[in-house]
Design goal:
single chain, DNA-binding, ArsR-like_HTH, mainly alpha, 3 strands, HTH arsR-type domain-containing protein, 59% helix, globular, 6 helices, WH-like_DNA-bd_sf, 143 residues, Arc Repressor Mutant, subunit A, three-stranded antiparallel sheet
């Protein structure tokens, strides 16, 4: 995290924590982090999982990288992203627990929200296929 302009001392831990939380305050970035806690992934894989354009996911990854939450490695022409700390999954599990306390739902740590994200993505893809078939015309709608 950057220190305020003109600051000569160490970064305030509260400001740093607020910056990390702010980076995670976007639903797409939170989904990306969940997906990365399962395994490292490319931008294209993440874009498919969160149902967003590659360019948008790249912007989200830049924000997460600036907050110190993700790191990357290059393999040929592809770049793979992963959490920059092993504590990312534990932190996200705590968020799930806190959310459960706030909402009264029985969330459990370790719930695989990445699997849920894949299910949501698959359902969206199926809806898009059905819409394409409907737009193709009456004879093709049931194929």
């Amino acid at each position: 995290m950057e220190k305020p302009h003109g600051s000569t001392g160490p970064a305030d831990p509260i400001d740093t924590a607020a910056g990390v939380l702010k980076a995670l305050a976007d639903p797409t970035r939170l989904r990306i982090m969940w997906a990365l806690t399962v395994q490292e992934r490319s931008v294209g894989e993440l874009a498919e999982m969160v149902d967003a354009h590659v360019a948008a996911v790249s912007q989200h990854l830049a924000r997460l990288r600036a907050a110190g939450l993700v790191s990357s490695r290059r393999d040929g022409t592809r770049i793979f992203y992963r959490p920059s700390t092993a504590q990312a999954r534990e932190f996200l599990d705590e968020v799930v627990l806190l959310t459960g306390h706030v909402t009264g739902e029985q969330a459990q740590p370790g719930d695989d929200l990445a699997a849920h994200a894949r299910e949501v993505t698959a359902a969206r893809a199926e809806r898009a296929r059905r819409a394409e078939r409907m737009a193709a015309g009456p004879g093709l709608a049931h194929s």
